[in-house]
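re: ur question from yesterday

yeah so i grabbed the chain u mentioned. its 920 aa long if i counted rite. heres the sequnce exactly as i have it in my notes:
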Amino acid sequence: MKNIQRKAAKEFAVYWKDKGYEKGESQKFWLSLLRDVFGMEKPEQHIEFEEKVKLEHTNFIDAYIPEAKILIEQKGRDVNLWKANKQSDGSVLTPYQQAKRYIIELPVSKHPRWVITCNFKEFHIYNMEKPGGDPIVVKLENLEKEYYLLQILAYKENIVLKKEMDLSIAAGDIVGLLYNALAKQYKNPENAHSMKSLNVLCVRFVFCLYAEDAGVFKRHGQFHDYLMNFSARETRKAVIELFKILDQKPEDRDPYLKDDNPILAEFPYVNGGLFENEDIEIPPFTDEIRNLLLINASENFDWSKISPTIFGAVFESTLNPDTRRKGGMHYTSIENIHKVIDPLFLDELKAELDSILSLATDRLKKQKLQTFQKKLSSLVFLDPAAGSGNFLTESYICLRKLENQILKELQGNQVSLGFSNYSPIQVSISQFYGIEINDFAVTVAKAALWIAESQMMEETEGIVHMNLNFLPLKTNAYIVEANSLRIDWNNIIDKTRLSYILGNPPFVGRRYRSPEQTKDVAKFFTYKDIDYVACWYKKAADYIQNTHIKCALVSTNSITQGEQVTALWKELMQNYNICIDFAHKTFRWDSEASLKAHVHCVIVGFSVKDSLVKEQKKLYDGINYFLVDNINGYLMDGPNIFLENHSSPICDVPKMKNGNVPLDGDALKIEKEDLPKFKNCMQYVKRLIGGRELLHGEERYVLWLVGASPAEIKKYPQIYKRVEQCRQNRLNMKDKGTQKLADTPATFRDTNNPDKYIALPMVSSERRRYIPMDYLDGNVIPTNQVQTIPEASLYHFGVLNSNVHMCWMRAVCGRLKSDFRYSKDIVYNNFPWPTPTPEQKRKIEETAQGILNARATYPDSCLSDLYDDNIMPADLRIAHNYNNIAVLEAYGFTKSSPAFRSESACVAELMKMYQKIVSK
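ran it thru and got these structure tokens back, copy pasting raw so excuse formatting
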């Protein structure tokens, strides 16, 4: 398939070389690309051309693909896509900025996920979830090799769930009803043994329901028909007897069972340990539970087509949400699982199989296929935080699908006869190991693997034309219940036998950890603020020493941002010789479970560095990737640099300081509506600005009594009353340091009031290209929700408002969810400033003033409005562009240098500058 697509891309590029003018050929160009290169049937039904948008006069969007949410701005082949051109309204915009202006007039439901600008020679692909990032550039001449970067054209953002997904989610709903109904019947539902028994009971029921629908039991509806013979009162005893029989080999059963209970005797021996524990507590059944089992779960539902990968996660959603939060569990979609397993091992295996299948000699092909099948059966996997087993289950299914391809090629049209003790299947669930702390999840994971084995065996039967007996279970699912951070992984699987480590360890920040989790972190790190997931990285790095094991873990994005980069990756790279093989930058992690986890994640693939092998690394941004020489701990294409906390700037610039900490219990703060009460003492009232006030223009005030005498304070009763309240508030606080401040109740804890300063919020939305900051004077008091730079000049304001500083900030700052968290000790103090000439410095001062002037023309708009990327005024955008160019030139980045137009290249240059500065 890849070879066919590559050939089609080459033919497309050859045909369109030296062709293309905007209006006459753009539709033909895009229809051909979608149809001939990406195999889209009837592309004219999927792409819209010339949609009207109303600006000052009617304009037209060149093309829009609704399913993929892609807006296309097409230009003629002589148009430079980087260059801004004058528009009909007088504004100067690049094609990308022109496209963004159209977006404002579209309904929110049609706002694009991607914008593509094209001039028939190049495609510039912009990810609209990451404003300010570099576009992916694909040249027509390179399309044969880089066509995959445009696969978003055929990607459906809102994919219709497959039938098996629908079934799996519906199955989870049924399990939830059954779980809740059974839980009510336990005498002591809070008892640990009762809850563990309930979990096991639900998993056993699911297995029986699946087995009767999928042909694992001897006949369809066997479990249903058995239970039909009993009333609700009798069902408990019937279930206990059934579980006992399912765990008994035929030779161990009562020889008279067929005579006494022929229906029960029909059930096969299962093996595998699923039914071996007879000590579980089974409560009395009600008519409601009996009906749920017989009607909802059996008669009205077919379990044979559920996806074990999805169902494992959905099944786990029967756990209490509080338990999930404390454990840091996040349910996983199949799409996201493949973001881990495809680059870790599956892409390489598929490519190897494609290469074998392309061989012309049948004898050599057969030999290679047999060798490849043995290779598949030799691969061993470990998920050290297995959860419901969905990573292991999906990996097993993918390996078995490859094996079935092999068997199909080897089988041809032959019909196998006999071989009753022979199985052509070599890949086994015994190759998959897991460690999981939650007993319910362990049981679910085993059941999911067995269901996957049954489904794949059925697929194999259709290929080799043989009846393969699934029961009794001949393989074991090696999922161990344990705290993964406190056991030796070698006791689960010797590392000399292991091939891959993969999974989704729990994400738990410091504030949400249990005492036990805090102890776990202390075993691995002295830095207390590191996320819990980092422990798995450290343990894996130690475990894989002197091996070729490759790892890939899903993590909260915090471990690749701010202080955590140095705490984790400096340790791994310098002390354990770890290198990052591939990585997915920050994306939102969703799942198939009804209670989805919306967290911002990264995926990091890593191994012990092999100094003899020089491989390029894959750095994913969305569904596309770049080949790079090195991926550092910030998931950037650049050298391995680790920013340490610095209390002062590494360059000769004014210090950044935190705003004033109030600790007044709001006694000294004045809301806008209360301001008239202080009209006779306004000399003591100043504007107060925190993050929200700075961004949204909200008015708040403060009694600023620094230097006021006791007589002056007592002169105004309304002031005296507030001071008295502040003293009382501080005395009532638990912290002893705050209680001492009751001796100075007329002021905030801090009393900084600079004459002029730059103020910027500590947290800002990732959707903004620029962090909004302002130039303020001594009449405005900053709180600790903003950072300040006292005595900063226009030059400093210009550099900080430039794209250069913003791309540095985006690369190294911490995050609050996905929002930027600006740190003075990491972001500001480590920022490498330029060394401009006097003329370059004067130019930056002029462009900085130009930004302030452009803002001043919109007195009714707050900073949040002005820097909303969808509605940012054109003149403000132009002022920033002039400022960006002035700052780039001060760094010596010419228009021909990659750093001038590429964010990643710019950050790489800044990191080199940082290295030089700190080395001195």
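noticed a couple things. The first strand starts at residue 48 and ends at 54. also Residues 156-162, 320-326, 415-420, 592-597 have pLDDT under 50 and may be disordered.
anyway ttyl
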